[in-house]
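Long-time lurker. I teach an intro course on protein structure, and each term I like to show students one example going from raw sequence to a predicted 3D structure in token notation. This year I'd like something fresh instead of my usual example. Would anyone be willing to generate the tokens for the chain below so I can use it in lecture? Attribution to the forum is fine with me.
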Amino acid sequence: MAFPRLGRVTREQERARARRRHDKVQAAQQRKAEKRERTRRLVAVIATVAIVLATVVGVALSMRPRGDSTDAAGATAASTPAATPSGIPPSGAASPTGTASGRCTTPPALQTKPQQFTAVPDKATAEGATWVATLRTSCGPVTLELDGKAAPQTVASFLHLAREGYWAPSPCHRLTTGGLSVLQCGDPTGTGASSPGYGFGIENAPADGAYPRGVIAMARTQDPNSNGGQFFVVHQASTLPTDGGGYSIFGKVTGGMDIVDQIAAAGSDDSNGQGDGRPKTPISILEVSVTKKKA
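-- Reply from a regular --
Happy to contribute to a lecture. Here you go:
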């Protein structure tokens, strides 16, 4: 058996070893390059997610209200006009803390001494006609259609208080959800205990106690003759007790119901544990204008 010369074998082995070393170096460099690429991609993904999260947080923060209002303490159920029977007391004094749409602005300070009137407005001033009321609020305009035919005394009172600037300004101080779904407004002091100085009786209350979404009705105490300046908007169809005569329906919302829905969706401070309290999204009536609807 012939054997190759030792010198020739050594050179071939060296070349083989060199190729193997070269291949190992190339493979290592390839692995490093692939690792760097994976790292680069991961960093890019993390950066993209961070940008998206920052954008979402920024949008959410921009939806927060620009300020909170501090409300005075609530009164007892016996002396407080309420959209429910006296067994459910009005809200307490907690300050709103929820988020609001970007269109809401900080409500003005509460009135400490609202105007007082001695005489009930003449129901003849409603003229048995239909009226349009525009409530300019801190969250946008809400328009109402008032039925002077079905509720002449209530509408006459509303027209009087609007023209006298009684509600400029006044907060919507109470929100109820679950079973009874109303946003109550009309007390310039925000306590739920104030009145314009006069009271009148119930009219146009549904016999079955059904209050459809969007209707406007008067708030009162247990006294059926305690209707005055406070009223409520029904944001979800509700059934109220008919004991004591019910609550006077005198109109309906024709524009801006989305604003009421926004306030309702944010919820209340639920100060009494019954889905009843001050709205977490503060809203105040800044001005009310009324015009007679053309035939």
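Some talking points for your students: Residues 1-62 form one domain. The chain is about 25% helix and 20% strand.
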